[in-house]
Fold:
Amino acid sequence: MTDRLLQLANTPWSAPLVRLLGLPQPRPLPRKTAAYTRQELAGRRVLLSALDDTASSDLHTWLQSRGAELNSADGLDLVLLDLRSLGHPAQLGELRARLQAAVPRLSPGARVLVLAPAQASHAQAAAAAAAVEGVVRSLAKEIGRRGATANLLQVPAELDASALAPLVDFLGTARSAYVSGQVLRLQAAPPVTLTFPALQGHTALVTGAAGGIGAATARRLAADGAHVICVDMQAADVPLQRVANEINGQALALDITAPDAPARLVAAAQARGGLDVLVHNAGITRDRTLGRMSASEWDSVLAVNLQSILAIDAALDAAHALRPGVREVCLASISGIAGNAGQTNYAASKAGLIGYVRARATQLQTSGGTINAVAPGFIETAMTQKMPLMVREAGRRLNALKQGGQPEDVAEAIAFLARPDAVAVNGQVLRVCGQSLLGA
Ligand code: NAD
Structure:
């Protein structure tokens, strides 16, 4: 879908008019969507700033090994602020000073990534750590107009710096174009060594893969070397086959709510020796205010978006068709976090999924697996194209980046969570919403 305002605000003849009318001025977002490589930070000008330099020496060595340029005197593409030793609100002045020095040097589309402690040993440390959340979320809103982002990682003391690799590869680069103002709480986990291509020899299953976010995800996982089983409705068989052929994957036409769907998916998984990546992406909307919503509008949304996922997982678990170390991702929505008028059914299904993800995380952790929710905001797909014009325009602009995201932005977040070494991220909700004002 074309975003006319994005075009007009960045064309020399129309940009002054957009400014004069006081309209939002979205900036084109630099994006990176190819397969992961060993040198993800090559050519990126990185400032590593730490409260405790000795504690961050591990990060320094690691950043260099990924190709980062660590001594740039001018522009900055990534500011990595290591506050893992933060213990008292009195240290927050130092945070202000460091950010104030770095922010004027940020390049368009730059990243600020802050590391803070995940545990606090006393109330003052907890206050300091929580204060950092306020700083990051606010800074993200300030720098969003430049297409830049800020995000926060809460890091357990015992986590090895190498476990941060997938997080910096994603949140520190143009791969996270539409992720801003987010906080991820990491879990302690043994380091996993990644070989490239990141998903070589892995089998992934993506539901709703015929179009939109699902097709972008299937393509992205295949780019990292995965064999992808692409699932969608029989009615979408033509585009489904096209996506599967394009990526040398396999098409499986079925309705995920059909009684035999779990058994057919188990059979497809077992034929490949089990699944390494499972993406529950298929979803529908049937919007109406609660008073006027029919039982079938309610039931169909709950059936596709929530109940089918629970039934499929139960069947895969019972058949041991998920490999140890599985990476499972469920597509939630910011409507499931903030609620949305006319979407009680949809919000129930997506909020329910978030609850499910949090609970199932503990179960998968025991075999090195993870499950996370990705909550997109306004993404330019067939689903949002159906919205009334004014609602659509509001959805696009009510975020720090003043534009909608692309299916590739969500696919990139899923590819990050699917990495075998992304083991520290479990039971989290990652919003891909440009720091939407909804439920912020
Ligand atoms: P889309 O409508 O473009 O694609 C959804 C796909 O799911 C379609 O190909 C459809 O045929 C398939 N599908 C629907 N019901 C199915 C069923 N019963 N069995 C098998 N396949 C089925 O949607 P999208 O925008 O790409 O959204 C993908 C996911 O992201 C959904 O879960 C959606 O709720 C979520 N999401 C999207 C947005 C957005 O802005 N587009 C925002 C928040 C969340």
Observations:
- The longest strand covers residues 106-117.
